């Protein structure tokens, strides 16, 4: 065992980069301070040179060192680099890919990963923006159930990544983020690396990560890395962050008093299950309800979650409202119903809802002076049950926890893990006398479901031949070409009026991957490419509805897809505007009795993406994609999609730039 | 015979309304539908959207012009109101004419992709 004293002794006696550099720096300081000290004590001494400022701008030599070819690094002859050991640790966790934008603060780990680690488990994927890297990891997890890691540059890289991390946090997705950070202020290179260092980079994302750490030794790294993986992968999932000192990566591994380095074994934590008493009470309420409704958002973490929800719904013959955070419930099932069924409910159970208040209340953005008002959507006395694991990790600053909703039974637990017990309890709690009535509920839902499908088709037929192309036509022309494949809708950003969810027979967990979580625009392009990467390895066909505004946040991710041969069919919903904002400005102008100023655009100034129109197909082509457009005639769409699918099947990404109706 | 003020107002509105409608231009109405921002939530063809117009379809609306105008002027739900200061009754009548002029959608059975 090493006590504090022996650890300090060790640091004094062993050679390492810091001691070497510290010695040089201390000697330099002694030389420069000596004349001043002498002048203060001896009036006969020669005149002292003018005092020098305590800090000087970098001279030409230093500036050249910052911007030129890196010099040979001294002090690495002493043994295995710390970053090689870090790679040993990382490899134990079977992380397949590393989407990453390179940076000097993790150059040592980068070099170890591709050379010592042979660029396998993880394989480096070159990204052009840290937000793209995090978005790719986000999408990859939702398609595969396995997390990826990324490396970001201490300050500026993490700032780029932050929005993506927030989306992952809100979407309950594990992403492992390591930020390079040169922490030794006395010895790190001045200039750029110092601009890019901070005391505590993790603070930037601490409000929306599950856990973070700053290891100070290789053994500390090993413990923290396995801990962060375990924390990220315990429901509720979430992103985790590590600040990794550049010196620690670069230095040879020291002798810690004979202590042998070890890599902790990863053992998954079981997800938290609902309290037995609360499960029984929930079952009693549901079994005795006249009109129970099940509302789900991120309840089905895995394909098994869908099976469990079907079993529960059929046991109760209860309507299921899928809010779409994940693929929770088959769209083809007769118990799949629209959100307004909550108005008829006497008991509602919400599972992993991101906003329970919003399920049972409405907000109308049309009150006096443009301030909205609230209204209830449910009958007075409706009993509410909640199973939500996110209650276990609620933080204060960011408001992703939404408004507070009072419920009658509250279980801070993982819904999927709780479902088996709840199903058993419900089956036991249904009295024989109620079984006929429950069966009749199912008959009514079968009729309603059939009618609903016909009404949706009628709505889709309106403006079928319009140009710009209707979003219903866009979605169904796409469906017609992919329906015989093992397809996966990897992203549908920009809002195509939810036509895929209303018209496509979504049944499998990978048919629908949900949305961004935090509604941070710019998620769609990288997440769809990350998910397509996972689907490529699983033999699935990936398709996305890619909106225009979303693509332009970091379009460089298109290059990453082409570079790494990630097949994806991106069908653009190009409505040539930030359409949500288009409507917001119009709304405010109306409230204020002012005519919204359009300039030369279609939409209020500052919200259009036109004049000039962006030629997304050319943008994609320039980065190695097969692409076509702009497609404005609906008759041209089907053949173009067919052509694009042939390209995607050959292993390349393809994009169609389609001009569409606004929603 | 006695008429209430309300009845007189309705009759007057119908007479005036039908006059406005008959003079209205669908072509002008299509332009007004865009320049006044109606397309944003209702689509260029008035087809509506499940997410921005709660599924309301304006093309071929069966609402009389007066009721249509009444809703546009006084909406207190999701749609923001358009008062006369920012949208004239003449423009509104033109828009109404445009919405009436939009061809009816094809039958679902005739669309292969929706079968």
Description:
The complex is a heterodimer of chains A (663) and B (115). With 663 residues, chain A is an alpha/beta fold. Chain A has 4 domains: 48 residues, no CATH class; 169 residues, Thiamin diphosphate (ThDP)-binding fold, Pyr/PP domains (Rossmann fold, 3-Layer(aba) Sandwich), CATH 3.40.50.970; 132 residues, TPP-binding domain (Rossmann fold), CATH 3.40.50.1220; 161 residues, Rossmann fold. Chain A is built from 23 helices and 18 strands. In chain A, α4 crosses α5. With 115 residues, chain B is mostly helical. Chain B has a domain of 79 residues: Orthogonal Bundle (Cytochrome Bc1 Complex, Chain D, domain 2), CATH 1.10.760. In chain B, 49% of the residues lie in helices and 0% in strands. In chain B, α1 crosses α5 and α2 crosses α5. At the A-B interface, α15, α16 and α21 of A face α3 of B.
What's the helix and strand layout?
The complex is a heterodimer of chains A (663) and B (115).
Chain A: H1 4-13, H2 17-41, H3 60-67, H4 82-91, E1 97-100, H5 107-116, E2 123-126, H6 130-144, E3 149-153, H7 156-170, E4 176-181, H8 192-195, E5 211-213, H9 218-232, E6 240-245, H10 246-250, H11 276-287, E7 292-296, H12 303-316, E8 319-322, E9 347-351, H13 356-360, E10 361-364, E11 373-376, E12 383-387, E13 409-411, H14 415-429, H15 435-461, H16 471-482, E14 487-492, H17 499-503, H18 524-538, E15 541-547, H19 548-551, H20 557-563, E16 569-573, H21 579-591, H22 616-622, E17 626-631, H23 634-649, E18 654-658
Parallel strand pairs in A: 1-2, 3-4, 4-6, 5-6, 7-8, 7-9, 9-12, 12-13, 14-15, 15-16, 16-18, 17-18
Antiparallel strand pairs in A: 10-11
Helix pairs in contact in A: 4-5, 4-9, 6-7, 6-18, 11-14, 12-14, 16-23
Chain B: H1 5-23, H2 26-35, H3 39-42, H4 65-74, H5 89-101
Helix pairs in contact in B: 1-5, 2-5
